[in-house]
Write a structure and sequence with these properties.
Layout (H helix, E strand, L loop, with lengths): L4 H24 L16 E5 L4 H13 L6 E8 L6 H14 L5 E5 L8 H20 L3 E3 L4 H14 L12 E2 L5 E2 L7 H10 L16 H17 L3 H29 L7 E2 H5 L3 H14 L9 H12 L7 E3 L3 E6 L2 E6 L1
Parallel strand pairs: 1-2, 1-4, 2-3, 4-6
Antiparallel strand pairs: 5-6, 7-10, 8-9, 9-10
Bound molecules: adenosine-5'-triphosphate.
The site of adenosine-5'-triphosphate has 18 residues, from helix 2 and strand 2.
Length: 345
């Protein structure tokens, strides 16, 4: 008898990603057939980022099962955010569970969570910095994250509510980070399947109280927003939102590529942006060029909002002699003699 369908599903999702990692790794490596086995470089290491929650425990179990079959090494990292009393003990427990699965190396790493951008963003920044450092330290080929289709749906809704365009609707990428380090094998899998896979494998899971805390936007969305949407629109909402993410990502990538090409054509011989040529472009392409120009001039990407770009855009499309526009990072945009000048003032 084969494994339970939920276990089969999580393993298949992980196997696919491991295949990709292996292909990329061996594709760039000299096979060195003449080198004796003990002198060959060790096989690639894949780490799982595990909170001890159902999604990442399921991921860890599937990695532990699939990696040896492909002669890959598999390890695990858990990050102790230090946000609750006893979080260090819990992290040690996760370490034990990962070791029990047969993962090696396994470690817990403690971080200090700052305040910038709110509690969720600060914890995320600290977590990714720790995961990056762990990946570097161990020379890992990839780090697996347990985001599911449900997480993706929530991310799309959060982007929609921000009102900042098709890029923010594109959710999380299956591959991201430096050199494509982060992989999300469960992006097309629902949270219930991951939880079920843990249950049937008798894997203990830890439910983060933050996930149920209504003080957090994502938690409210998970427990109130999405259920209300499902009630109003039907059960397929999560799937449809995840599909929206993929379609939006493709659209956003295409528009970014178009903007990169168009940019060269709208600059004069001195490299300044020509307003008449910008005017002739579709708004989606033009706004991308303006955004890139502002970032290049020193505006921090995270503080540059749609309303800033719209204001700069009005120098092109609604010109009535208005003055300079102040942007984050002390960047100033102004129109001078048919040219748009964006620089740090
Ligand atoms: N403390 C942590 N240590 C290591 N990895 C983490 C930690 N917290 C989150 N992650 C990684 O980020 C992914 C997404 O985490 P997030 O908290 O957004 O989702 P989740 O649905 O609560 O996931 P899980 O059920 O695995 O905790 C996790 O699946 C895991 O891979």
């Amino acid at each position: 008898m084969g494994p339970h369908p939920a276990v089969a599903a999580i393993r298949l999702a992980v196997r696919r990603v491991l295949h990709d990692i292996l292909t990329e790794h061996t594709g760039t490596r000299d096979a060195s057939p003449g080198v004796p086995p003990h002198e060959r470089p060790p096989s690639p290491l894949v780490l799982v980022a595990c909170s001890g929650g159902a999604d990442s425990m399921a991921l860890a179990s599937a990695l532990a099962f699939e990696a040896p079959k492909l002669a890959l090494r598999a390890g695990g990292i858990t990050v102790d955010h230090g946000l609750q009393p006893g979080s260090d003990l819990r992290a040690e427990e996760v370490v034990l569970r990962l070791r029990e699965l047969g993962l090696d190396p396994v470690e817990s790493t403690a971080v200090t969570v700052g305040r910038e951008g709110g509690p969720e963003a600060a914890a995320r920044d600290a977590r990714y910095a720790a995961l990056d450092a762990a990946a570097e330290r161990h020379g890992a080929a990839a780090v697996l994250l347990g985001h599911t289709r449900d997480d993706q749906a929530e991310t799309v809704l959060l982007g929609l509510a921000r009102g900042s365009g098709v890029r923010s609707l594109s959710g999380m990428a299956a591959v991201s980070g430096a050199g494509g380090r982060y992989r999300r094998p469960f992006l097309e899998l629902d949270r219930q399947t991951a939880r079920k896979a843990c249950m049937v494998q008798s894997l203990p899971v830890w439910d983060d109280p933050h996930n149920a805390d209504p003080a957090y936007t994502r938690s409210r969305l998970r427990h109130e927003g999405l259920p209300a949407l499902e009630k109003a629109l039907g059960k397929g909402v999560v799937e449809a939102l995840a599909r929206t993410a993929q379609l939006s990502r493709d659209d956003a990538d295409a528009l970014d590529a178009w903007a990169r090409q168009a940019e060269a054509a709208v600059r004069d011989s001195a490299g300044l942006l020509e307003c008449a040529k910008l005017y002739a472009l579709p708004p989606a392409v033009r706004r991308r060029i303006l955004r890139r120009a502002a970032i290049e001039a020193g505006a921090p990407a995270g503080s540059l909002f749609a309303r800033h770009i719209e204001e700069v855009d009005r120098l092109i499309t609604g010109w009535r002699g208005q003055g300079a526009i102040n942007l984050p990072g002390k960047v100033v945009a102004q129109r001078q003699g048919g040219r748009l000048v964006i620089r740090q003032g």
